[in-house]
Amino acid sequence: MANGMAIIGDLFEPRERARYQGLMGAVFGLASVAGPVLGGWLTDAASWRWIFYINLPIGVLALAVLAVAMPKPETGQQHRVDWWGAAALTAGLVPLLLALNWGGSQYEWASTTIMGLFAAAIAALSVFVYRELHASEPILDVRLFKDRGFSASMTVLFLSGVGMFAAIMFIPLFMQLVQDRTASSTGALLMP
Questions:
Q1: Using the 8-state DSSP alphabet, how is residue 142 labeled?
Q2: If DSSP codes are grouped into helix, strand and coil, which group holds residue 117?
Q3: In angstroms, rounded to a whole number, what is the distance separating the alpha carbons of residues 103 and 93?
Q4: Cα 45–24–65 angle (5° rounding)?
Q5: Cβ-Cβ contacts under 8 Å for 182 (sequence gap 6 or more)
Q6: pTM for the structure as a whole
Q7: Which end of the chain is more exposed for a tag (fewer CB within 10 A), N or C?
Q8: Which residues does residue 107 pair with via DSSP β-bridges, in sequence order?
Q9: CA–CA separation, 101 vs 45, rounded Å?
Q10: Residue 125: how many CB atoms within 10 A of its CB?
């Protein structure tokens, strides 16, 4: 979604952006309702592999349209990518995700493996924050978090995203694996 918003920012003038972002939001809303129902029906009627037969050609078509419609970059100020910051962020997120995924299932939460992964994540993310504070063009300007409005909105956005995606991921699993429902009925349950 962030890339979609950035593309709208590149393609349209500021006075037109709200209209196109509204259209994109409407498409997202429609896809959130119709997608699980259609996906469940395809899974029950044909096979789960049909998601690739349908989505990959649409994705290739969308990339082709973007390749033609995206404005060419202006020759002006050259920007530098903070590769060390990106490496530190990756080095921090990978062990964090592994610890959260393995903790309580493959390893005890208090095991040395999980604690070591958390320690590695904290160390690498600390390096990331330090790097972003001193980079000329940071990936994420951590000074933005000093603004209470920005911090509050990011916290709400994070929590609502966690809630939405947890529901989208776990309700279908629960319905199909525990309650032995079909993919179609699971998709219909996600409509509300």
A1: G
A2: helix
A3: 15
A4: 80
A5: 40, 44, 176
A6: 0.65
A7: C
A8: 103
A9: 33
A10: 17
